[in-house]
Write a structure and sequence with these properties.
The chain is an all-alpha fold. It has helices at residues 2-29, 32-39, 43-49, 53-63, 76-93, 95-105, 115-134, 144-166, 171-182, 189-192, 201-210; strands at 68-69, 221-222. 68% of the residues lie in helices and 2% in strands.
Length: 223
C-alpha cells in the first residue's frame, strides 16, 4: 500500500512539473531534463510512468477532465453555462488546466494530437443541447452539433485573447460577455430570463461539485 501511495504521489509530481514546463515553454521547447529538474525525480522514475514527452503531454491533457460531476439542473442551458463558468474558474486557479489549454491551443506542437480536448469539451455541451432541445429550451433553427462546436470554438478564442492581454485576469468578464452574446441566438426568451450568469458562478459550481468528494481524491471534471 505504501509503495502504491508513493507511486501515485510521484506520478502527480511529474505531471505537475510537466504542466508547469509546458505552460511556460510550450510543447515544442519543453525538454524532459527540465521536467525532471522541476519534479525532482530520477529519469527512471519518470520513464516508469511516462514513456515520452508526448506521453507526458497526453497525461496533462487527460488530467484536466476526469471525475468531478457537474450538478444537474432543470435547465440544460443553465448546465451549459455552468460547464463554461466552471472551466473558466479552473482555468484561473488550476495550473494543470492552464497547461492543458496551452497544449491544446499550441499550433506549433508538432506530433502532438490536440484533437482530443476539443472533442472532450464539445461532447458535454452537445449532450446538454440535445436534451435542451427535447424539452423545448432551444430556438427552432438550432442544430445542436453545429452550436456545440461554435460554443467551444468561441470560448477557445476568448480564453486565448484573455491570456494574451491580461494573463486571464479578465477572463470571467470576457466569458460572461460571450455568453450574453451567444445565448440569445440559441435559447428561447423564457429560458434566458432564468439563467444565473454572475461572476462567482464558476466558483459556486466548483464548490458545489467538490463538496461531496473525498478529501484525498484528485479533482478533475467530467462535465
Amino acid at each position: 500500500m505504501a509503495e502504491q501511495v508513493r507511486a501515485i504521489r510521484t506520478r502527480r509530481a511529474i505531471l505537475s512539473a510537466a504542466a508547469k514546463i509546458f505552460e511556460e515553454n510550450g510543447y515544442q521547447a519543453a525538454t524532459i531534463s527540465e521536467i525532471l529538474t522541476e519534479a525532482g525525480v530520477t529519469k527512471g522514475a519518470l520513464y516508469f510512468h511516462f514513456q515520452s514527452k508526448d506521453d507526458l503531454a497526453q497525461g496533462v491533457l487527460s488530467a484536466q477532465a476526469q471525475n468531478l460531476v457537474l450538478p444537474e439542473r432543470a435547465s440544460k442551458i443553465q448546465e451549459i453555462v455552468d460547464i463554461v463558468m466552471l472551466h473558466t474558474y479552473r482555468l484561473q486557479t488550476d495550473a494543470m488546466v492552464r497547461a492543458a489549454v496551452r497544449l491544446t491551443m499550441d499550433q506549433r506542437s508538432q506530433g502532438l494530437d490536440r484533437s482530443g480536448p476539443f472533442r472532450t469539451w464539445a461532447a458535454p455541451v452537445l449532450e446538454r443541447l440535445e436534451k435542451g432541445q427535447a424539452q423545448g429550451e432551444l430556438l427552432p433553427h438550432v442544430v445542436p452539433a453545429e452550436t456545440a462546436d461554435i460554443i467551444v470554438g468561441s470560448y477557445a478564442g476568448i480564453q486565448s485573447m484573455s491570456q494574451a492581454l491580461t494573463d486571464y485576469h479578465d477572463l470571467v468578464i470576457r466569458v460572461t460577455a460571450l455568453l450574453r452574446h451567444l445565448l440569445p441566438s440559441i435559447a428561447v426568451p423564457s429560458v434566458l430570463t432564468s439563467l444565473h450568469l454572475g461572476e462567482t458562478r464558476g466558483y459556486d459550481v466548483y464548490t458545489e461539485a467538490t463538496s461531496a468528494l473525498p478529501e484525498e481524491q484528485g479533482v478533475a471534471v467530467r462535465a
